[in-house]
Amino acid sequence: MPKQGIHPNYHEIRVVCACGNNFATRSTSKNDIHAEICSNCHPFFTGKQKMIDTAGRVERFRRKYAKVGTPAAK
Asked: Has UniProt tagged this entry with the keyword Cell membrane (predicted)?
C-alpha cells in the first residue's frame, strides 16, 4: 500500500495547442496548458515539414549569411 498524504493532488485540465487541437489530461497544476506544437501538428507524427518562423528569425538569418559568400579562389 502506498503511503497516505505524500502524493500530490491531480486535477483534470485542458491542453490547448496553437493548431486548435485540445484534449483533457491530469496534472498537479490547476491551470490549463497552452502548447505550441502537439502530436496532431508535429512533423514527426504528421510526416509534413512545417516552417515555424517566430519574429522573422529565418529571414534575418538568410539576410545575415547572404552577405557571406564562398571565398574567392586565388
From this structure: no
